[in-house]
Design a protein that fits this description.
The structure holds 2 protein chains of 2 kinds. In chain A, 43% of the residues lie in helices and 13% in strands. Chain A is an alpha/beta fold. By secondary structure, chain B is an alpha/beta fold. Chain B has a 5-stranded parallel sheet with strand order 2-1-3-4-5, sandwiched between helices. Classes of the chains: A alpha/beta, B alpha/beta.
Chain lengths: 485, 215
């Protein structure tokens, strides 16, 4: 299929050149001293007093070309491994919300490790999702196990690739230890790392932080999977033009990409971003703004120019419930992204600009994801699909309904939505006028009432629990039960 | 030019968010012998009040509010030394220790708040970003602050706000300071959970909240 292209070839090239100019003349502020050493050693101009790093264009060109064309997410079960762009678009949950909308009371509250276990089970079962980025924090985390209390319930209950971040090095090392226990040793883990790390070391505009940069460097040195997201916010951290925001984000992407290649050549990366336009009336953060979709679409074009996979946080919403706003912000943005060829969509399950997870929203987003994937398949042009023989056989005035040709394709040509209502109005009234939220929550309940086949065996669990004393239980439970205790 | 005319010009130049015009009006007033304190109290501040009202009803947007505040700040660079010379320093509304918590490098919201605090008559000690919990506590004690104001954008750094409140409690100093929080990752509910004295969704609301807390 041909992708929607918002920029001409010349405009893509000019955007790239403009980004090089920013890196060369404005530079990047790098707060982590070892990162500055890496830049210095590989030909950048570094001022250790100010922390400013400037990048000669030929250095950027040399290292950005070392980035490979694909990135693989690995799950506990290899059948769920996904490589982009070829397996794309892949759909990832939104991550690290502090809160959850309680599925029983409907009231927003702090999320716990028990919620993460349930969400992991749900995402494992929902076919639209490919990667579980740990949706919430765990408020019940024991001292010293902030990240472990998120990764353990996530990995235990989900065979699909699990993705998330850690706030510091000791948490990161603990999480990798957990991965090695699951894999059965350091070597086995190095071969098939089932944890996919993600960080935002670039703080717009044009700044590299300490903690996330350190984590990215550590993981890159070890060849463990890690990718980053850049987050320019027009009017606040980037210019109030979409092109200016594209340039700032692109310069940041190039800086972190070049950094990873300098640390280890050939490190797989993703051109991922969460570009938004701040609401100038109040400064409010607006990740569901339509401009996010436009910017992600342009970025997909740039990523093809660089020969790397792309996508990001597209399809988030500012809405606080499963209302029309939640639907159109997720739907419109993701469809813009996939039609432009973005193959990574971080979109599932969050309200309130990444602040709260909702089970019903995740189920709705599963359906939107399936529609996005269908949109990406496009028309599937082929001589066979022109169906000329079939048109001749049915002839004028006939019906295609009873045909073998139809029967053979009825489940694959079109999406068969589980939630979208296609009944007549009277049928809907007779059913008690169910809302999309009612239907989605019922589906979440149905899934979570089933036993979770994804949970690992008791022997492995015992080994893990022995290794990390005081670990949270991390078990999924049916939604009717109280998950707050 | 009569004083009243100067005050009108000063007020209007703030409403117009025009830094050059503000500075010209300030200099013209000073040349005519208008006192620095009167320039602020009867010219610039009434202008800022109008700006605040316009912002609240969305007649103007955040960048316009910022420009007016920045114009006010550059006028203060001229006026403050004169006020000190004349010993006419007004009472500050309160002392604020401000910063973004440990592990978090996001500064823009915090910087907007700093500007709004200063234009609203607060005295601000800005500790910057990635601020260690003891820096907050020590600075607040050192300057005898009224309010500790902490920002966090990342959900993973939120806990830094809780740490500061707990450290204050451990040191038996919790009652000495009001603690308020804000930033993209925060909610009112989080503020209640950690025992903060207040939460604000925006920088503008944070100033209103702080004014209430110190009065």
């Amino acid at each position: 299929m041909r992708y929607v292209e918002l920029l001409t070839e010349a405009e893509v090239r000019r955007t790239h050149e403009a980004s090089l100019e920013v890196l060369e003349t404005v530079g990047i502020l790098a707060h982590f001293a070892p990162a500055r050493e890496v830049f210095k050693k590989h030909g950048c101009i570094v001022d250790d007093e100010t922390g400013l790093v400037r990048f000669p264009a030929e250095i950027v060109e040399k290292y950005r070309k070392l980035a490979p064309p694909s990135f693989t997410f690995r799950g506990r079960d290899p059948q769920y491994d996904r490589t982009i762009p070829d397996d794309g678009p892949i759909v990832v949950t939104g991550s690290s919300a502090p809160n959850v909308v309680d599925p029983v009371t409907g009231v927003e509250r702090r999320a716990t490790s028990a919620d993460i276990a349930n969400i992991a089970h749900l995402i494992n079962e929902l076919p639209g999702f490919d990667v579980f980025s740990i949706s919430t924090l765990a408020d019940d985390a024991p001292e010293g196990q902030f990240s472990l209390s998120r990764f353990y319930p996530a990995l235990k209950n989900c065979l699909k690739p699990v993705r998330s971040n850690t706030p510091n090095m000791s948490d990161l090392q603990q999480v990798v230890e957990l991965g090695e226990l699951i894999a059965g040793g350091r070597e086995a883990y190095a071969e098939r790392p089932c944890i996919n790390h993600h960080y935002c070391p670039m703080v717009s505009p044009l700044t590299m932080d300490v903690d996330s940069t350190e984590a990215v460097m550590w993981l890159t040195e070890r060849g463990l999977p890690v990718y980053t997201t850049v987050v320019p916010n027009a009017g606040l951290t980037s210019p109030m033009t979409l092109m200016g925001t594209l340039v700032v984000g692109n310069a940041e992407f190039l800086a972190i990409t070049v950094f990873q290649q300098m640390v280890k050549e050939g490190t797989p990366i993703i051109y991922a971003s969460l570009p938004t336009v701040a609401d100038m009336r109040t400064g409010a953060y607006a990740p569901g703004a339509i401009e996010t979709g436009i910017l992600l679409a342009a970025q997909a074009q740039l990523a093809r120019f660089y020969g790397v996979p792309s996508g990001g946080y597209i399809g988030l919403t500012n809405a606080h419930s499963n209302d029309a706003q939640a639907g159109y912000e997720t739907g419109m943005n993701t469809v813009l992204g996939v039609s432009a060829g973005a193959t990574l969509l971080n979109m599932g399950g969050l309200y309130s600009s990444l602040m709260a997870f909702d089970f019903a929203k995740a189920v709705v987003d599963n359906e939107i994801a399936i529609m996005d994937k269908r949109a990406y398949r496009g028309l599937e042009f082929s001589e066979e699909n022109l169906a000329l023989d079939e048109i001749a056989a049915v002839g004028p005035g006939g019906s295609y309904m009873g045909r073998k040709h139809t029967k053979a394709r009825m489940k694959t040509t079109a999406v068969l939505p589980r939630l979208a209502n296609r009944d007549m109005r009277q049928q809907w009234e007779d059913a008690g006028r169910p809302t999309i939220n009612d239907r989605a929550l019922a589906e979440a309940r149905r899934i979570l009432a089933q036993p979770n086949e994804a949970v690992w065996d008791g022997e492995l669990d015992a080994r893990i629990r022995e290794h990390f004393a005081g670990l949270v239980a991390g078990d999924a439970t049916p939604l009717e039960a109280d998950t707050t205790s | 030019m009569a004083d009243a005319e100067h005050f009108d010009k000063l007020k209007q130049s703030i409403i117009d968010q025009d830094e050059d015009q503000v500075l010209a009006a300030v200099n013209a007033a000073l040349d005519d012998g208008v006192e620095a304190k009167a320039i602020i109290d009867q010219g610039l501040l009434p202008g800022l009040n109008v700006i605040g009202e316009q912002f609240e009803c969305e007649d103007i947007f955040l960048p316009e509010l910022m420009q007016a505040a920045l114009a006010f700040q550059s006028a203060m660079v001229i006026l403050e030394p004169k006020i000190k010379e004349q010993g006419a320093e007004g009472e500050k509304k309160g002392k604020i220790v401000l910063g973004t918590v440990k592990g978090d490098l996001h500064s823009i919201g915090k910087n907007i708040l700093k500007l709004l605090y200063e234009t609203s008559g607060f005295e601000v000690w800005d500790l910057g970003i990635d601020v260690d919990l003891f820096q907050f506590v020590d600075k607040a004690k050192e300057v005898d602050a009224d309010i500790i104001a902490m920002s966090a954008l990342l959900t993973t750094t939120l806990v830094g706000q809780k740490d500061v409140i707990e450290a204050l409690r451990d040191q038996g100093a919790r009652d000495k300071f009001k603690v308020i929080i804000g930033g993209g990752a925060t909610t009112k509910e989080w503020a209640d959970t950690i025992g903060a004295d207040g939460w604000a969704a925006t920088a503008y609301e944070a100033v209103t909240l702080s004014t209430k807390l110190v009065s």
